[in-house]
Amino acid sequence: MEGLKTVKRHFPEFLVNSPETFYFVPVTPGEVESEISLLSSNKSPGVYSWLVKILKAAKCFISQPLMKIMSTSIIEGTLPEKLRLQSWTR
User: Fold this and answer.
1) Please, where are the H alpha helices in 6-46?
2) Is residue 10 part of a domain?
3) Which residue of 6, 56, 60, 65 sits 20 to 30 Å from the alpha carbon of 13, by its own alpha carbon?
């Protein structure tokens, strides 16, 4: 593109400790469990209400893997392929 410089550095190298940058604190399993607990089991009837009930029942088992997925996504700026809802084509 015209007027833009090409650099051979990765984006984290541009993040310095200044007021214009931000930092994400890694997600904890406790935070994941708290968010799952906040999901409403009664809002949508049918299949999705069962999904929320299953998530709530399994939260202590799934919080660690979900925490790793979320923290890795934030740190790397990516999302696992299987979790993407939209596929982009040219």
Assistant:
1) 29-38
2) no
3) 65
Q: What is the pLDDT of residue 34?
A: 94
Euclidean distance between CA atoms 25 and 71, whole angstroms: 9
Q: Number of structural domains, the chain? A: 1
Distance (Å, rounded) from C-alpha 34 to C-alpha 13?
Answer: 34
**pLDDT for 36 beyond 80:** yes
- The CA-atom distances, in angstroms, between 16 and each of 11, 21, 62 are 11, 7, 34
Q: What is the pLDDT of residues 2-35, one digit of tens each?
A: 666 777 777 666 666 666 556 677 788 999 999 9
The answer to whether the beta carbons of residues 67 and 32 sit under 8 Å apart is yes
User: What are the CA-CA distances from residue 58 to residues 8, 65, 78, 81 (Å)?
Assistant: 44, 12, 26, 23
Domain contains 20: no
